[in-house]
Write a structure and sequence with these properties.
This protein is an alpha/beta fold and 261 residues long. The chain is built from eleven helices and eight strands. It has helices at residues 33-41, 60-68, 70-80, 92-96, 100-113, 122-132, 146-158, 174-178, 182-192, 210-220, 227-239, and strands spanning 21-28, 46-53, 86-89, 119-121, 138-142, 163-168, 199-202, 224-226. The chain has a four-stranded parallel β-sheet with strand order 2-1-3-4, with helices on both faces. A four-stranded parallel β-sheet has the order 6-5-7-8, sandwiched between helices. The longest helix is centred in the middle third of the chain and has 14 residues, at 100-113. The model has no long low-confidence stretch (mean pLDDT 94).
């Protein structure tokens, strides 16, 4: 990068400037995990900018009400005006809640509100991620209540990814999702894996995952894909940017930055 008036680039500190690509994230008001995990994966030149939307309990009724609320449109319009290069709705269950038709309708509404900025949901990003690795059957780990977990399994199956085994933690409070210790998530993923699963899929964008993915892949000998990791991968693909730091799983290999310098 060239600087005017003799500024030496070697004297400058990184400032997170998104000169390669800016991701506009629409995220639940009480959630905290996705932003920091996306920033952790982002190589220099990729930035993340967030708009918030209110959520009640993590159940079918409140999740659906959030996506149908006027706030959803407002949050999309606000972050799209930043400006950003892609608008990402970071709600896994909110985008798979009623299957593919629901996800497609959500994406279409986002696209209409974004002023021409490409729109992407976490559910769409996850399906694309599984397809990119040629994944068939998956083992499913979630923190959801049973009804939401079962809808997740049905959505995966409808997209060609039958669930070989699935376990859930029955958490209803959004903030409690973020407080599950990494040790517990590690054990959940190991417990859910089966020999016939092509990959382990970790659902939920307020559920920690990326710190574990590389180690889990080494431990289990197969890809591990999380909703947050897939969302980051999907957003980078939409922007056409190789902008991920190395070390966050097999999925991210094709979007890793060549250099962080």
């Amino acid at each position: 990068m060239a600087f005017e008036r003799g500024v030496d680039p070697a004297r400058l500190m990184p400032d997170g400037w998104g000169d390669k690509g800016r991701i506009g994230l629409v995220y639940l008001h009480s959630s905290v995990v996705m932003e920091n995990e996306m920033w952790a994966m982002a190589a220099p030149g990729v930035s993340v900018h967030t708009s918030r939307i209110r959520i009640g309990k993590i159940n079918v009724h409140d999740i659906g009400a959030m996506v149908e609320s006027p706030e959803f449109e407002t949050s999309i319009r606000l972050v799209a005006g930043a400006p950003v290069d892609v608008v990402l709705f970071g709600g896994t269950s909110a985008s798979f809640l009623h299957g593919n038709a629901w996800d497609e309708a959500t994406t279409a509404r986002m696209q209409g509100w974004s002023g021409g900025t490409p729109a992407l949901t976490t559910a769409t990003a996850c399906v694309r991620a599984l397809e990119s690795l040629g994944i068939g059957k998956v083992a499913l780990a979630t923190p959801y209540v049973e009804e939401v977990h079962e809808r997740c399994a049905a959505w995966l199956g409808a997209n060609g990814h039958p669930v070989t085994d699935g376990r859930f933690l029955s958490i209803t409070e959004d903030q409690a999702l973020a407080e599950v210790p990494l040790d517990d998530i590690w054990e959940l993923c190991k417990a859910v894996d089966t020999p016939d699963a092509d990959a382990v899929f970790i659902s939920c964008t307020n559920f920690r995952s990326i710190a574990l993915i590389k180690a889990l892949e080494e431990e289990l000998g197969k890809p591990v894909i999380s909703a947050i990791q897939a969302s980051m991968w999907g957003a980078l693909n939409v922007m056409g940017v190789a902008g991920a730091r190395p070390g966050y799983g097999r999925l991210m290999a094709d979007v890793e930055a060549e250099s962080e310098l």
